[in-house]
Amino acid sequence: MEIKNLKKTADRIEQAINSQEKIILYGDADLDGVTSVIILQETIESLGGEVSAIYFPDREEEGYGISVKALNLLKKLSPALFVALDCGISNFEEIRLARKLGFEVIVIDHHEILDNLPEAEIIVDPKQPGDEYHFKELATAGIVFKLTQNLLAGKMSQNLRNNFLELAALATIADMMPQTGENKDLIEGGIFSLENSWRPGIQAFLEDKILLNYNSPQKISKIISLLNVRDVENNLPAPFRLLTSTSLDEAKIIISRLKEKAELRREKIGMIIEEIKERVSEKKDPLIFEGDETFDLSLISTVASSFCQEYQKPVFIFKKLKEESQGTVRTPPEINSIQLMKKCRKHLISFGGHPQASGFRIKNENLEEFKKCLTENLKNKNY
Fold first, then answer.
1. What beta strand segments (E) does the chain contain?
2. Please, what's the b/e burial string for 154-182 (b: 16 or more CB within 10 A of its CB; e: otherwise)?
3. Phi-psi sector, 181: left (phi>0), alpha (psi -120 to 50), beta
4. Hey, which residues does 41 pair with through a beta bridge?
5. Strand partners, 241
6. Which long-range contacts (CB under 8 A, 24 or more apart) does 155-159 make?
7. CB–CB of 297/60 below 8 Å?
8. For 105, phi and psi rounded to 5 degrees?
């Protein structure tokens, strides 16, 4: 039994390569999305194909997933095969627009299904209805690794396999997927391979003195921590630039820059945490629901995780923009954040993600009603 539509996707991409069609790879800017893009890009190039464009959305400006801004920028490439990686499963309107613009859309995602599926030509998501694949907890990079095995078949050398395993392992750990079943095998193989990686970006990390006294799991944790630091250049996030770097010197420069930013990041996270602690110290709500214009969108996921772990209650942290807010959600294991937000979806522009880690967009005028709805459903255990 194979993941639903995986072979169909491989056949369609192979057809696009053979017909020299334009191919666009659109990935979420986190490590899972970035590594998924790299694995598929390098697979396509290994088969003699070419990727016409790579796009990572700026969450602060565009929100999560496929954005109208991106589609307007990319429409000059239409017609093209548009492959969304680690996003797209909740982008109903945007995918409808993409198809109107002449794109053929493939969604490869691992996030929860929001009742319905978008109108993409092909959807690969183990959580979609009708998918009987036995393991549902792969990161998107893990799914793309399987797709690559379909595409390359007998052409995949052991070195190339190890190379993709490294990236898939990093993504699986970074996305906090369960380290069981197929993920366990993937992670073990990837970590073993990482120690002898040919990628300059990985080599530069392993040669850096910050990892000298760490064991393998600690090294991976430190690498992921630095790769999570926001640093965008020419619309490309640091993980993409680093992991595709062809020069050890270039990779070392990027790492040095990330280390500097990481220190500043820690200070900012500490300030946000202290401010929220002051706000919630006297509150008895069943959730933490806090936002501000000054919050850095790239930091609030870490802040939310910290509060969820400490207080063991649902945490909704958001950055307030002019008319809308963008937020991140973390919940204890017994509370499914997606099911909870489904109960209050009338107040939201969009939402999606995993049961314990998700996100949302909302008009500022609806924030209080959203909080009331969440509180009521939490009290009634409707999640």
1. 23-27, 53-55, 80-85, 103-108, 122-124, 232-233, 236-237, 288-292, 315-320, 324-330, 350-353, 357-363
2. eebeeeebbbbbbbbbbbbbbbebeeeeb
3. left
4. none
5. none
6. 155/46, 155/47, 159/198
7. yes
8. -105, 130
- Examine the domain organization and report whether 22 and 102 are in the same domain: yes
Decide which of 191, 214, 232 is a domain's last residue. 191
Cβ proximity of 124 and 6 under 8 Å: yes
74 burial via Cβ count (<10 Å: 0-12, 13-18, 19+): buried
Q: Are residues 218 and 303 in the same domain?
A: no
Residue with tokens 């909080």: 371
pTM, entire model: 0.93
Q: Rounded CA gap, 94 and 97, in Å?
A: 5
Total count of domains within the chain:
3
With 90 as the cut, is the pLDDT of residue 267 above it? yes
Distances (CA, A) of 131 to 3, 4, 117, 281: 7, 5, 13, 45
Q: Which residues pair with 352 in a beta bridge?
A: 359
Spatial separation of the C-alpha atoms in residues 332 and 61, rounded to whole Å: 29
Task: Give the burial string for 361-383 (b: 16+ CB within 10 Å, else e).
Answer: bbeeebbeebbebbbebbeeeeb
In whole angstroms, what is the distance from residue 8 CA to residue 124 CA?
A: 9
Among 172, 191, 210, which residue terminates a domain?
191
| Token pair 């009603």: residue | 369
Cα–Cα distance measured from residue 187 to residue 182, given in angstroms and rounded to the nearest whole number:
9
Separation of CA 284 from chain center: 33
User: Per residue in 162-207, pLDDT tens?
Assistant: 999 999 999 999 999 999 999 999 999 999 999 889 999 999 999 9
Asked, for residue 278, whether it belongs to a domain, the answer is no
Is 187 in the same domain as 203? no
Percent of the chain residues topping a pLDDT of 90: 88
Same domain for 341 and 318? yes
Query: What does the pLDDT look like over 195-232, one tens digit per residue?
Result: 889 999 999 999 988 887 888 888 899 999 999 998 99
If asked whether residues 316 and 351 sit together in one domain, one would say: yes
Instruction: Note down the domain range covering 232.
Output: 199-268
In a domain, 273, yes or no: no
